[in-house]
Design brief:
By secondary structure, the chain is mostly helical. The protein is built from 16 helices and two strands. The termini are far apart.
């Protein structure tokens, strides 16, 4: 069935028809206008009876739905910050290693002979070089550093050109480097080549997801990471001999970031993750007593039990992140 444009009033009516309680219709309309009906309701599956029955559980409120939307946004912001730092580190290290080992001009880093000598990857290497040339051509004049080198020296050194390359291309570039170059880069992060190579597309996936404000908390990647010591230390349960978490989900991303970052302070990933989870978990009784009391709403059992359940999950997550921060 074709999807047609719906006014804010029509969007509100659709939500009400699906069983969602909306205590402040004007505020809800304002939120839907600013945040987009499609993106806010993307979190509805936490509150519906089943994937086939799209009706909301009795007592579910718009405030609860929007709170989950905000929680995921805060989570994305923390992850995005840390992924961007790694992206910059990776670009800098790769530019240094390749420039040192093969040269820093276009004739060096765009020379297919300086990549892995594997005929099965010849097409991938040629396609990658074409992508790099295209991004340099499109973005080169848009950045002051790249345009400066083009205008004054007639070429762009690799340590500058990485600025205009996407994380995805940089990650793909790593897969076709010579093994000696791969090892030198991976050793800086104290991670084996195979694991490091599998981490890059996962990080790129979450980087783009965070940048475009897609749903983060339940995202699954196609690539699965290898088992690590952290899977065992966190006592992640297994099913059929495989860990059920930490392989291609948010837990996997946290494990990857843990392996990448060795030292941290108050503004580190785990401090921020624990902080945001804690602040999101201590408001259940406050919300129920203050906001529901102000509108004289007495039927709040679903809200209360859901709040306590999320508080419990937050507590478990905080312990996990604290434990990840303590072990090394």
């Amino acid at each position: 069935m074709e999807k047609t444009f719906k006014t804010l009033d029509e969007q509100i009516n659709i939500l009400i028809d699906k069983g969602l309680t909306i205590n402040d219709i004007e505020k809800a309309k304002s939120i839907l206008l600013r945040e987009n009906y499609f993106f806010v309701t993307g979190y509805r599956f936490l509150f519906v009876k089943s994937y086939t029955d799209r009706k909301f559980n009795k007592g579910t409120t718009f405030e609860e739905l929007y709170a989950m939307f905000i929680f995921d946004r805060q989570l994305r912001n923390i992850l995005f910050k840390n992924i961007l730092v790694f992206e910059n580190n990776l670009k800098s290290i790769m530019a240094y290693v390749m420039s040192k080992n093969h040269g820093y001009k276009e004739k060096n880093y765009l020379n297919k002979n300086n990549f892995v000598h594997d005929y099965t990857k010849t097409r991938q290497i040629n396609d990658l070089i074409h992508k790099m040339k295209r991004q340099i051509s499109i973005n080169g004049k848009q950045h002051s550093a790249t345009s400066h080198f083009i205008d004054n020296y007639g070429y762009i050194p690799l340590w500058v050109v990485v600025k205009v390359l996407s994380f995805g291309i940089v990650g793909e570039l790593y897969t076709v480097l010579q093994n000696e170059d791969k090892r030198e880069i991976a050793d800086i992060f104290n991670i084996d080549i195979d694991s490091f190579q599998s981490y890059l597309p996962i990080l790129a996936n979450y980087r783009n997801l965070c940048a475009h404000e897609d749903i983060c908390y339940n995202n699954k990647t196609q690539i699965v990471i290898n088992n690590t010591i952290y899977h065992k230390l966190l006592n992640i349960p297994k099913m059929d001999g495989e860990y059920i978490y930490g392989k291609n989900d948010l837990f996997a991303l946290i494990i990857i970031l843990k392996r990448i970052y060795d030292h941290y302070g108050i503004d580190h990933l785990y401090s921020l993750m624990g902080s945001i989870l804690q602040t999101g978990s201590d408001t259940t009784l406050y919300v129920v007593s203050l906001y529901y009391g102000s509108i004289h709403l007495k039927k709040y059992s679903y809200t209360l039990w859901l709040g306590f359940f999320l508080d419990f999950l937050s507590f478990v997550f905080m312990l996990c992140f604290y434990y990840l921060g303590m072990i090394s």
